[in-house]
C-alpha cells in the first residue's frame, strides 16, 4: 500500500494555489458579478514573465514583482476598459468575455514562449524541514501560509474597511448602490486589482510546484472556480475548504493506479456534488 503522507503534504501546497486563485475569483464576483475565467491565464503570464527575467540574469525578487504587477495591471485594465461596457449584459456573456481574454493570453504565451514545459525554481526549494516524517520545502510552507493570510486579510478587508463595505453593497444590489452614491467603477477597479494580484502570486507558486506551462497554468482556473462554486461565490471559508479538498484529493489519487489517471476530474466531481447539494430543496419541492 502506498505511503499517502507525502502526497497529502504536496496536495496541501497545490491546494493553497487553488485557494489563492479562488479567493480572487470570489472577491471579484462579489463586487462585480463577473466569473473570471482568465484568472489562470493571468497567473501563467506572471509566471512566464518572472521566468524570463530570471533567465536573463535579473534579480529574482524583481522578477516576481514584475510578474505580479503585469497580471494586476492587465486585470485592472480589463476591469476599467471592457468590463463596464458589459456590466448590464447577461452573466454568461460577461463570463465568456473573460474566457476570450484567457484564450488570447494563452495564444500570446504560446507564440512568445512556445509549448515546451519549463520550471520556475524558487530559492525556497532548497530549504526544507521535517513534518510527520515528510520533507516539506519552504516553498510549500510559504504557499500554505500565503493562502491562509490572504484569506484572512481579504475577509478582514471586506468586513472592516469602507471600500470592502462598498464591494459588499455592490454584491447585494449594484443599481441601488450606485443610486446611493457608491463609486461603482472605483470599487470594481479595486476588486480587479485584488483578483489580478492573487492570480499572479498563485501562478508563480504553481509554476514552481508543478511546471511552467501555459496550458497547465491557464486551466488551473478550473479547480479554482470549482472551489468558488462550493463557496457559492460568496463564502470565503467554504471556498477555502473546497480548494483544500480538491487539491488534497487530486494528490491522494495520484499513487492509486486505477483512478490516478482520472484525478483531473476531481474538480468537476466536487462541483457537481456541490450543485446537487445546493439544489436539493428545490428538487424536493418540484417532486
Number of strands: 2
CATH-level-2 architecture:
Orthogonal Bundle
> Rg to the nearest angstrom?
19 Å
Cα distance spanning the termini: 45 Å
Estimate what percentage of residues fall within beta strands: under 5%
**Which CATH first-tier class would you pick?**
Mainly Alpha
Largest β-sheet summary: 2 strands, antiparallel
Adjacency order of strands in the biggest sheet: 1-2
Structural class by helix and strand composition = mainly alpha
The helix-strand sequence is HHHHEEHHHHHHHHH
Poorly predicted segments: none
Q: CATH topology, what is it called?
A: ABC transporter involved in vitamin B12 uptake, BtuC
- So how many helices? 13
What's the oligomerization state?
Answer: single chain
Shape: globular
Q: In the residues, how many domains can be counted? A: 1
Could you report the average pLDDT, rounded to the nearest whole number? Answer: 85
Helical coverage, percent range: over 70%
Overview of this protein structure:
The protein is mainly alpha-helical and 287 residues long. It has one domain: ABC transporter involved in vitamin B12 uptake, BtuC. It has 13 helices and two strands, in the order H-H-H-H-E-E-H-H-H-H-H-H-H-H-H. Strands 1-2 form a two-stranded antiparallel ribbon. Helix 2 packs antiparallel against helix 3 and helix 5 crosses helix 6. It is globular and about 60 Å long. The protein starts with a helix and ends with a helix. The model has no long low-confidence stretch (mean pLDDT 85).
Amino acid at each position: 500500500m502506498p505511503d499517502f503522507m507525502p502526497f497529502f503534504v504536496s496536495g496541501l501546497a497545490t491546494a493553497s494555489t487553488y485557494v489563492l486563485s479562488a479567493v480572487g475569483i470570489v472577491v471579484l464576483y462579489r463586487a462585480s458579478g463577473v466569473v473570471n475565467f482568465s484568472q489562470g491565464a493571468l497567473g501563467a503570464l506572471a509566471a512566464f514573465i518572472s521566468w524570463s527575467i530570471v533567465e536573463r540574469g535579473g534579480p529574482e525578487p524583481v522578477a516576481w514583482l514584475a510578474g505580479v504587477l503585469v497580471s494586476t495591471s492587465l486585470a485592472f485594465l480589463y476591469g476599467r476598459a471592457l468590463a463596464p461596457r458589459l456590466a448590464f449584459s447577461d452573466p454568461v456573456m460577461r463570463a465568456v468575455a473573460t474566457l476570450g481574454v484567457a484564450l488570447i493570453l494563452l495564444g500570446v504565451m504560446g507564440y512568445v514562449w512556445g509549448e515546451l514545459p519549463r520550471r520556475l525554481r524558487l530559492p525556497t526549494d532548497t530549504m526544507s524541514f521535517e513534518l510527520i516524517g515528510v520533507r516539506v520545502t519552504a516553498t510549500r510552507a510559504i504557499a500554505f501560509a500565503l493562502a491562509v493570510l490572504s484569506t484572512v486579510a481579504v475577509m478582514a478587508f471586506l468586513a472592516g474597511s469602507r471600500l470592502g463595505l462598498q464591494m459588499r453593497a455592490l454584491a447585494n444590489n449594484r443599481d441601488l448602490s450606485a443610486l446611493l452614491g457608491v463609486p461603482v467603477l472605483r470599487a470594481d477597479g479595486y476588486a480587479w486589482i485584488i483578483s489580478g494580484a492573487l492570480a499572479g502570486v498563485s501562478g508563480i507558486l504553481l509554476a514552481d510546484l508543478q511546471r511552467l506551462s501555459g496550458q497547465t497554468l491557464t486551466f488551473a482556473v478550473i479547480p479554482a472556480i470549482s472551489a468558488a462554486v462550493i463557496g457559492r461565490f460568496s463564502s470565503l471559508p467554504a471556498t477555502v475548504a473546497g480548494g483544500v479538498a480538491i487539491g488534497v484529493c487530486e494528490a491522494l489519487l495520484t499513487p492509486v493506479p486505477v483512478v490516478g489517471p482520472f484525478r483531473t476530474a476531481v474538480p468537476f466531481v466536487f462541483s457537481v456534488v456541490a450543485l446537487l447539494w445546493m439544489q436539493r430543496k428545490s428538487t424536493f419541492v418540484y417532486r
